[in-house]
Amino acid sequence: MVTKRDYYEVLEISKDATQSDIKKSFRSLARKYHPDKNPDDPSAENKFKEIQEAYAILSNVDERRKYDTYGHNRPGGSPFGPDGFQGVNINIDDLFGGGFESIFGQIFGSSRSNSRRKKGGDLLVRHTISFQSVYDGLDDELEIEALTSCSKCNGSGSKDLDGVRPCPSCNGRGRVQRIERVGPFAQQVVSDCPACNATGKIVTNPCISCNGEGSSYQAKKIKFSVPPGISTGNRIKITGQGEPPRGNVGENGNLYIEIEVLEHTWFERDGADILMALPVNYTDLLLGTTVVISHVDGKDLNIKIPPNSKPGDTITLPRRGLPHMRSSRGRGSVTVLLKLDMPTKISRSLKNKLKELKPEISNSISLEESIIEEAKKRRGK
Ligand SMILES: [Zn+2]
Ligand SMILES: [Zn+2]
Q1: Residue range(s) occupied by CATH 2.10.230.10 in the chain
Q2: Measured in angstroms, how far is the CA atom of residue 114 from the centroid of ligand 1?
């Protein structure tokens, strides 16, 4: 018998690795040793299986605790049953997304598959908030049409208590098992019982209100708070506000609210930092000035433009940006990019004055002068 390697050693992690470390290391090793990637190396297949086994144990909190206590010699034999670990069929693409997690979620017998069955579906809705709300945070509300447990039959789907019988196909378990062989791996596949739709129950006298479904679509109001500093794409999780579990046994799924932040008229956002382009005329760039604009924090933003500024210069106002989400790091900064604002038309009198000033202005522009000088020099050569 070959000695089994330590699971932590297999995954190249330390004993105090977090779940996210474990997942990260598994993903990168599994990608490296996936049989599809190593068709000519028969040892890769065993290595791949070894990595899978280590991951199956260490990613499961209960199993990891047992392994930490007993090592490979735990009482009661292999957690994978009498035949030991058989491998799991993972598509290589799953290793790039999160697809492999649900595969591993099923492998420890029926208790885990039951807990999976008992949770209702998760919901995702999108919700738009103003730019200002990113600064202040917000208590908000939205209405969703969601599958909701029927109040008439308490979600059972049955008109009366006697009208529910255990499903004969799965003996009331809701799940059926079979062995499937995919590529090099034989695996035990547990799937939903088609006869009872995984509820484990057959309704003989259906509830009229929900047609025996146990749930129906109903509008419901959801209250939630948006933390300051939130960004487009962030999701707020509302536990238990998803769909009810099938047969109403178990817990509801979760509701995820994906936030979209509306664009601001002149502010652009980079995390907690705010950027803005400020059009300034020629004389203000040259002589300097202070531009005052109203800001998201309720105080004015005083942008001091120093004399002799150029278009493209930036002015940074530290700690006047947006708050960092769920962090005490304070606020980001505001960066103002100066742009030259050219008038579209000018009055006759201004035109005349500029003509008068032109010789003087031309002389004072060093850049233009140096270009002309440089060009003359080059021609002279
Ligand atoms: Zn069934
Ligand atoms: Zn009902």
Answers
A1: 123-261
A2: 13
What distance in angstroms lies between residue 215's CA and the mean position of ligand 2's atoms? Answer: 6
Over the stretch 262-291, which tens digit does the pLDDT of each residue have? 999 999 999 999 999 999 999 999 999 999
Among all bound ligands, the one having the nearest atom to the CA of 196 is: 1
Residues 6+ apart with CB under 8 A from 323: 135, 228, 229, 272, 330, 331, 332
Q: What is the pLDDT of residues 103-115, one digit of tens each?
A: 676 566 443 344 4
HSE of 354, CA atoms in CB hemisphere, 13 A:
8
pLDDT tens-digit map of 205-239: 888 888 888 888 888 899 999 999 999 999 999 99
Half-sphere exposure of 259 (CA within 13 A, CB side): 25
- Average of pLDDT values for 324-346? 91
Ligand 1 centroid – CA 192 distance (Å): 8
Q: Where in the chain is the domain with CATH 2.60.260.20?
A: 265-342
The class (CATH top level) of 7-107 is mainly alpha
Indicate which ligand has the atom closest to the C-alpha of 197. Answer: 1
- pLDDT for 379 equals 77
pLDDT for the residue 151: 86
Token pair belonging to 256: 């995820």
CATH 1.10.287.110 domain locations along the chain: 7-107
Q: How far apart are CA 252 and CA 148, in angstroms?
A: 10
What is the fold, at CATH topology level, of the domain defined by 123-261? Chaperone, DNAj Protein; Chain A (2.10.230)
Taking the CA of 215 as reference, the closest ligand is 2
In the chain, % of residues over pLDDT 70: 90
Domain spanning 265-342: which superfamily? Answer: Urease metallochaperone UreE, N-terminal domain (2.60.260.20)
Distances (CA, A) of 222 to 124, 127, 129, 198, 240: 13, 12, 15, 29, 11
Distance 159 CA to ligand 2 centre (A): 7
